[in-house]
Structure formats: structure tokens, C-alpha cells
Design brief:
This protein is α/β, with parallel strands linked by helices. 42% of the residues lie in helices and 12% in strands. The strands form three sheets. Strands 1, 2, 3, 6, 10 and 11 form a six-stranded mixed β-sheet that branches. It has a three-stranded antiparallel β-sheet with strand order 8-7-9.
């Protein structure tokens, strides 16, 4: 992965070591290329001295330290005290806390499904009027983010309950620039070009793709991401939404078509390292290793932004956007995930904090550290410490549609069960329509 630092980012890294004596602020206010004007403007008129804000989320360990480094600036701007607690059993803990009347002011949900359920039971507070308009205007694919955070309350009326802050990106194809350069391959900018490149690599005697579905008890999940990405590239987003909510069944020809589109890549012996029979049995963590062998065992690997963790040390890797069809006129859809922040115990400080999340500075301060992408169109991308992070965020900002990982939005028995195993069956040779029918039968049996 590209590791070069811009001069400005390097200066910020030096500033990061200068923690403020009166708190845990990683960057001295006023220094670096941050949008400090947004910090100053927010601080004016938001005096919360003596008030305490409690926040609970999924982050523990080093990840908790990162979020706490951002909360320090809210404390500095407002005078409030913020208490953050993290849990690796967040989903269970937040339900217990709300039912017991001991909920934090704000909860950070890794998936929208639980937040939607809690909103329907009256356990969340709608965000302030105007927040939806702000998100729509200031986030790339803003309407998508509004839709993802809008749920029906206990009275059936819909409202914006969730604000997305910290996003993950899945619509990526990884490759070795050295291998591409040596072979003379260009980066495809459309699905048509990607399919043509796939055939060209085969004609040249190579293998285009590394694909592995193995993941222990979770074997099969990488294929669900492929299907979700391909559905967004072959059908309008409302088809995706209807499928995720079970209004459109797995057996619908459009869903079966997306499964078969994955099969175009994964069930062709010439396309996949080790042949099609190896896809279901190859561990997803091992599958990209072929990118970096000499000669390459494969040239491309579609996977989310976290996959470099499993690359060989010192691997020369880069990525490009998993492209859309030029003829499809569906824009540039992006598949991903992210954390949704919602008010679980109403208090004035909680609403002020949601205003803080709208400032560029709240995003830039985490961008300058690690593991943070944002659809906020008003941030300064120069604060990213690496070209790779900056390029990923540019893909996110270029999205015309964003959709959350569909399997994560489905009931666990489907999204983390029948869908996973069904894709293993399909990759191993089962008919797509039969697999879709089996998944839908399971879903129908839950009604």
C-alpha cells in the first residue's frame, strides 16, 4: 500500500505528539491544516460547563483511545465532561441498559438494524429539525445517508434518528501496480472494461482473480459482498432496498441475476486462482497472496478496505473502485458500512454533540490519525496521513449512492446464515435459482 506522506500531513504527525497539558487533544488548536474556524464557530455559544455527557459504543482498546481523542475537543469547546464506555458486547448491553432505564445519552451503533428496532419501541430520540437537510446537502450521496438513519417511531411516523460518522468502504479491487505495469494493464473505469481486462489476462496466459470464501464458521460472507455490489450495479437502489427488507424475494429474477453475475467471475476455472472449485475452500485471508507472487498467480482481488492487514509484509498494493456499468446509467454506487450515532437518553448536551459531528473539524481530527473515512464534502483531504486513505475517501465522496452491507441488515438467520451457506453452495456448483429458493424458504419460515 502506498505509504508516502504529504509534507502537511507529516507536520500534523509531529503535532500529534504534543498532547495538551489540560486534556488529551492530539493536535494543538490553531496548528496544522485543519478547519479550526469550524471549531471556533462551534465553541461560540455552546457553553455546557458543569454538564456531563455519556456515550457508549463498540470500540475498546486502541479504538477507544481514538474516539476519546475526538471527544476531548468537544470537551474543550463546550466545557462539558464526556464519559465514553466501550463494549465488545455493545448490541446486548445497549438493549439491557435502555430497558433498565440506565441508557447513555448517546449510543454508537455498528449496524442500523438495531437502531431502527429501538426507534420503533420509543427508545431513541429524533434528531433536531434540519439535521436531515444538513446531511442531504453536506454528505456525498446525502439522501442515502438520510434514508439509512430514518426510521418509524412508536407512532409509525418516520424521523431521522441516526447520524453516520466513521464509514468503511467495500467497493474496492486490490492489485499490484508492479504486476499491472509489467503486463501493460490499465485500470478499468467501467464494468465493461473490467470484464474485458479479465478476458485479456486469460488471453495473455494469466489468471485474473483471487477469490476465497473461507472464514471458519462465517464461510461464505465474501460472496455476499460481491452479490450486493453487483446488484447495485445492475439494478436501481430501490431494488436493493426492497431485497434487504424482504419486500423483493431472493427468488426475484433481478436478485438471481446478481448471484449469477458473481458466478460469471467465481465459477469460471480460467478466471480464478486454483480454479472455481478452490473458491469456497480458500480462506479469504489467504486468497490475496497470489497478487504478490512472481509471476502473479492472480491480478485482482475484490475486498473491503481492511484487507491489507492480511497482505504479506512489504507488499506493493493499490486499489481502484469496483466500477459500474457504463451503459447502466446507475451512477457510481458504493457499498460499505459505518457507525450510526443516536440519542438514547435525551439531554440538551446530546443535541449539541450531534451539532459537533456536523463540523469539518470533528471529521478531520480522526482522519489525521487512522481508520476513518467520511462522506462529509467539506473536509480537507490533505490531513490524511497517506495517499491510500485519501484515495479511498475520494471514492466515497464520488459516490452517487451509498448502501449499507445488505447481509448485515437482514435477520441474522438469513444475512449471517442462509445467505452465507447458500453462496457456498452456489459457488460449488448449485443452480442460482435453487439457492435463492432455499434462502427465501428459510426467510419465509421465520414469519
Amino acid at each position: 500500500m502506498k505509504k508516502s506522506l504529504l509534507a502537511g500531513a507529516a507536520a500534523l504527525a509531529l503535532t500529534a505528539g504534543m498532547a495538551q497539558a489540560d486534556g488529551h487533544m492530539m493536535f494543538a488548536p490553531g496548528e496544522g491544516e485543519f478547519n479550526w474556524d469550524s471549531f471556533t464557530a462551534f465553541a461560540d455559544g455552546n457553553d455546557l460547563s458543569g454538564q456531563t455527557l455519556s456515550i457508549t459504543g463498540p470500540w475498546i482498546g486502541p479504538d477507544a483511545e481514538l474516539v476519546e481523542s475526538i471527544l476531548a475537543y468537544f470537551e474543550e469547546a463546550t466545557g462539558a465532561t464526556v464519559n465514553y464506555s466501550g463494549s465488545d458486547s455493545f448490541e446486548q448491553d445497549i438493549v439491557i441498559a435502555t430497558q433498565a432505564g440506565s441508557a447513555p445519552n448517546i449510543a454508537v451503533f455498528p449496524q442500523p438494524g438495531l437502531a431502527a428496532d429501538m426507534a420503533s419501541r420509543g427508545l431513541l430520540t429524533p434528531l433536531a429539525d434540519g439535521t436531515a437537510d444538513w446531511v442531504s446537502a453536506n454528505y456525498a450521496a446525502g439522501d442515502s445517508w438520510v434514508d439509512l438513519g430514518t426510521y418509524a417511531g412508536p407512532d409509525g411516523d418516520e424521523a431521522l434518528y441516526g447520524f453516520f460518522y466513521k464509514v468503511d468502504l467495500k467497493s474496492l479491487v486490490w492489485y499490484s501496480p508492479e504486476a499491472f505495469d509489467e503486463a501493460g494493464y490499465d485500470i478499468p473505469t467501467s464494468m465493461e472494461e473490467l470484464m474485458a481486462l479479465t478476458d485479456q489476462i486469460v488471453a495473455d496466459g494469466g489468471t485474473p482473480w483471487c477469490i476465497g470464501l473461507g472464514s471458519g464458521a462465517a464461510t461464505g460472507w465474501p460472496a455476499t459482498d460481491w452479490v450486493e455490489d453487483l446488484l447495485l450495479r445492475t439494478q436501481p437502489a430501490d431494488v436493493y432496498d426492497g431485497w434487504v427488507s424482504n419486500e423483493i424475494p431472493f427468488t426475484d429474477e433481478r436478485i438471481v441475476g446478481a448471484i449469477e453475475a458473481f458466478g460469471h467471475f467465481a465459477r469460471n476455472d480460467a478466471y480464478v486462482n486454483g480454479g472455481a472449485s478452490a473458491v469456497a475452500t480458500t480462506d479469504f485471508r489467504d486468497s490475496p497472496a497470489g497478487l504478490f507472487s512472481y509471476p502473479p498467480e492472480c491480478y485482482m482481488h475484490r475486498q473491503a478496505s481492511f484487507i491489507p492487514t492480511f497482505f504479506p509484509e512489504g507488499a506493493d498494493a493499490d486499489f481502484f473502485y469496483f466500477p459500474s456499468y457504463e451503459e447502466g446509467d446507475l451512477g457510481n454506487p458504493v457499498l460499505g458500512a459505518g457507525t450510526l450515532w443516536a440519542i438514547t437518553d435525551d439531554a440538551p448536551a446530546a443535541h449539541v454533540f450531534m451539532e459537533f459531528l456536523q463540523t469539518p473539524i470533528a471529521h478531520e481530527l480522526w482522519m489525521a490519525q487512522s481508520g476513518f473515512l467520511t462522506p462529509h464534502s467539506g473536509v480537507n483531504l490533505d490531513v490524511f496521513p497517506s495517499d491510500a486513505q485519501r484515495a479511498m475517501n475520494e471514492i466515497l465522496l464520488g459516490a452517487t449512492t451509498f448502501r449499507f452491507d445488505g447481509s448485515d441488515l437482514m435477520p441474522g438467520e438469513i444475512g449471517a446464515g442462509a445467505f452465507w451457506t447458500g453462496m457456498v453452495d452456489y459457488t460449488s456448483g448449485a443452480d442460482a435459482a435453487d439457492v435463492a429458493q432455499a434462502i427465501q424458504d428459510r426467510w419465509d419460515s421465520m414469519q
